[in-house]
Amino acid sequence: MSAHPNNRTLLAKLIALAAAMFMFAIFVLPPLYDLFCEITGIGGKTDGAYTAVAVEVDTSRDIEVQFVATNNATMPWDFYPIEERVVVHPGESRAVVFYAHNRTGQDMLGQAIPNVLPNNATDYFHKTECFCFNNQPLAAGESAELALVFIVDPDLPPSVNTVTLSYTMFDITDRAVAQISQVQ
Amino acid sequence: MAHGPATLADGWGKYISRWVFTTNHKDIGTLYLWFSFAMFIMGGAFAMIIRAELFQPGMQLIKPEFFNQMTTMHGLVMVFGAIMPAFVGLANWLIPMMIGAPDMALPRMNNLSFWILPFAFAILTSTLFMEGGGPNFGWTFYAPLSTTYAPDTVNYFIFGVHIMGASSIMGSINIIATVMNMRAPGMTYMKMPLFVWTWVITAFLLVAVMPVLAGAVTMMLMDINFGTSFFDAAGGGDPVLFQHVFWFFGHPEVYIIILPAFGVVSQIIPTFSRKPLFGYSSMVYATAAIAFLSFVVWAHHMFTVGMPIAGELYFMYATMLIAVPTGVKVFNWITTMYRGSLTFETPMLFSIAFVILFTFGGFTGMMLSIAAADMQYHDTYFVVAHFHYVMVAGAVFSGTAAVYYWLPKWCGKMYDETMGKVQFWIAFIGFNITFMPQHFLGLAGMPRRYADYGLQFADWNMVSSIGAFMYGGAQILFLFNVIRTIGWGKPTDDPKVWEGAEGLEWTLPTPAPYHTFSTPPKVK
Predict the structure, then answer these.
(1) Domain check: are A70 and A144 in the same one?
(2) Residue A136: its chain B contacts at CB < 8 A?
(3) Do A92 and A147 belong to one domain?
(4) What pTM does this model have?
(5) Which of these, B48, B88, B437, B499, has the minimum number of CB atoms within 10 Å of its CB?
(6) C-alpha to C-alpha distance for A142 and A132, rounded to whole angstroms
(7) Bridge-partner residues for A117, per DSSP?
């Protein structure tokens, strides 16, 4: 059975297509997804640290900002906002505090992941300082006040009067231990 | 018969080597079909365990942890082990004979793509006997269930999926190469039988999306073992990304399962209607349109993740659009039968049941595509009923029809028509008793994937289980009929077998010789 001369070229092309789709799934889809979420604000992921620019405070608008704190899965910490809601004017810088307490007998590392609702407010909620920019080490029995400084952008869509900022605290102790042992 | 295949008379050693080292498309097709039937029986046994547990409310037979493993393994084994290899087996047997080629284009790769499959499923099934149990996160293996909360055996599952993906990709490449390069002179693309057309389109879908599945499980593997955070929010990833990647594979996958079934039915209905297929070219274009649309509708599986309204509307309308080419197909099948001189042999019965029940399953799909209504239907038994109507009454019925239709050609013996019809009616009635009540259960709010349920669901669950045992029994009859045919069936040497059959494979002697079309036929 003589192989058709074109079979090998076709084989190579199709294998290349399969390999390209594999690369697409791993290296293109996840960044594309993140980019899409960032542009549209879907998923409520806020940007990193924001450098405050001088804007006029819009005293005509009152925006209620609500805070929600949850523990992920088996995270045993006490974790809650000191103030559950504050009212701010757009453009005004405001500091609030979250409380975290490691009730266990072990040193632990936490990571808070923010999420903003509604989606169209995500791009207008700026954080100049946030505990979520770093992970939070808490020794056994230790507690801490975690600081957040934020500005609601004056360009916030007029339909939005309430913004909810939610933090989920993840236990990343094992992950950090694994990374340290990898470095060593 | 100097070049004939080794038979048992040549001794066990030679006989086994023949099957292990074979590069013959008919041998490999046979291997695929038997393998898929074995997987079908195994996946069916899992389903029987599920339905036995759900026969009554409360926990009777198995623990909930094991129930979860059963639902997961049932889905994985049926989709990747039974349905897909069955159609690859049919493609191996039939495509060379239908386009006048002597064999598949890449015969040694063909051997490899089959023989890695049993290993994939051995790896996957062995997890059931390991500490921690097999995969228990559903056949869609959503992260973080399949990453953070998975049993340790998840790595075996991942390697199993990698191997079966490699097998599918190689099988598809072979089919594309065969169809593009090995057609007999005069066999233009628009003269190819529809089964060949649907398979070549399916093969392109497979080459495009099986690597995406491999990518998804690779990302899982890295999240679990190497500290990456593709799907872990704690490290900046997103579990919803998993669903997007999975369904980017998963939605084309459902057409991978159903398109070859469309092809089979498009061969059988004209034969027993004694009329050419109505609207051949519209069938080809409809198949291509369905394949294209399958890439742009994936998020209708995840309306409940909190998508913006614009996304919901887009995915809703795009999904509904698929009903147009599918409707063209159903119209063509019915019009082929219209004023034909119909006879109702077993393959035709299964094909007509396919058209009716697949259309029914398509309509429930339309209901599910309505984003607002899907909030209610999502993850209920309504979804289970929907996809069993399209996958069992769709793919499995057409696969059964295909076996009855071509079995006389393959082995030169007729099956028992009465037994075939009895099997059909038990299967048809059993199937509907099983899955029709699941629509009611789903609409009443019974969620899928639980080992127990509220008392208000008890009656219909019992009915459903009784139907499932009936349907399972029909498959045993099927197995018996096939073995009886091969061993003791009435010999036939009529090349056409069926009076109305058209196509190159029916010009060959019956049973089909080991090597066919060594010199290509002329197609006018």
Answers:
(1) yes
(2) none
(3) yes
(4) 0.90
(5) B499
(6) 18
(7) A164
